[in-house]
Specification:
The complex is a heterodimer of chains A (289) and B (241). Chain A has four helices and 18 strands. Chain A is α+β, with helices and mostly antiparallel strands and 289 residues long. Chain B is 71% helix and 0% strand. Classes of the chains: A alpha+beta (289), B mainly alpha (241). The interface between A and B is medium-sized, with 29 and 34 residues.
Amino acid sequence: MKNTCLLIVLFMGLSIFSNGQDDFVYDPDYASFGKKEHLGEEFYVVKLNRKNMRVRAKYFANEMDGKSVGQRFADWSKNKKLICYSSGAYMNDFNASQAGLVGLSVDYGTVVNRNIKAGELHALVVVYPNGGIDVCNLALGTINLKSGGAEKSYNMNDAYDINEFVAWAEQEKLTVFQTHLLAHSDQLKVGSNGSSNARERRFLVIGSKNEKPYHYLIHKPKAASLYNSTRAVKEYMNSKGISVDAIINLDTGAQDVFRFYNYDGTVSGKLSGQLQVENARNLIVYYYQ
Amino acid sequence: MSILTPEETQEEMNIISDCNQGSMAGFFCNETGGQISYSKGKLGLGNAARIYLEQLDYCSMPTIECDLNYLLDTMKFPSDAERQFFRYLTDTLAEHRTFKDDEFESDLLMNQLIFGERAAYYATIKPKYSLFFSALGQFWMNKVANHLTSLNEIESDLKYNLNFIQIANRCAQNNYYISRNYTYLDKIVQYAIQKKFGYLWFRFWNNTGMGVKTLVLLIIVSGIWAYGLLINQIVHKLKRK
């Protein structure tokens, strides 16, 4: 009798546990979202564990084949386990429906904007088809990338090399965009004498802790200059023992789009962007696979 | 548009005629022959290079291809020759045809844009020199697009200039988008036109201090009070009648 009861309890426990597992869209160990505080500053932090490449990135740079970014995202995400998405690079106009993109932009091998702004937007972000991300510092001149096992090096001050890079990006179906590089190799790259324009900020932070790679989407709601916001975020990251490889700026202006999905697939109500994804001009998405 | 003195020009023409191969060989020939070099002139540019660039027919990509062919067939280090020739058509030419930092020279910008367009198109029909001509097109179209952006940053109203719009749209047709600079007033008007009043309110509330908020509130209250007074006066006059 005693053994029978034990077996029943064990069976029920297993059932509950297995049902719970089936409700998970993604493993909560790989992604989390919460409000954090550090030295009087508030942050909304999406933490993404990039171990084993279970968490992958996808970037939609432009409308394609007559479909807007929102429509492309809707079609693509139908069978995907979404974690979060956010607006990405800057637009060159305030009307998202007619705005072009700022900086070199390639969308899965299709060149969207060939205008490279090497003097201002020093972050060249490369999103690989397998969901990997590399952030290159254009201020260094030469960038080093790896794709398909091959290492490539390009001098981005040389038109020949820029052309070769773009041709390679087309061939390898890379996605590329430019934005402000705020920190690189654990050093701040934005000056305190820069623009004093105060506003809310959103950053993508690429870092590591104990040699384990992490990505963070950090939203800082309190208006502050780019320098002060970046410094606060970097200090927060360092306080958590995270070595910052790169901090890049994401657009929160005319296309403020953001959403986080809980591990059970529900939408988090902690923070959302001012606009719906249908109004996005470009989108960076993290998903679980 | 030659910037050489008549004596300097004659001296360079003598070098060219001595080589007896036309301007292309004279451009690259030196005492040892077959090696890429050019002597720096008084203004820091190769005089022979300047003569070549002044004589060059910018409308004709086949001419440039012909010169490139000659280089690659005759020079000891063809890849170096190609790169050097490319630098003359880009960096050296850019020094020769400098874009002024604070003046919108629509004709010059359009001419260089067309030069870049032609080079980019020529790359699609000449696979042998595809990299050379596409890089040449990329250099000039990128330069024109970035220059338009920097001009607009200096003068915000330039984005409403018809010539500016025409060149910017032509850049966009070639997938070179420029960034337009908007003042705060531009932004407010744009958002109002797009009926994004909620966003305007959000930005106003979060990005302004108490002083500005108080001032705006006073202005609104004053306006409402003034309208109230006016309506009161009208009603009062109607009642008297």
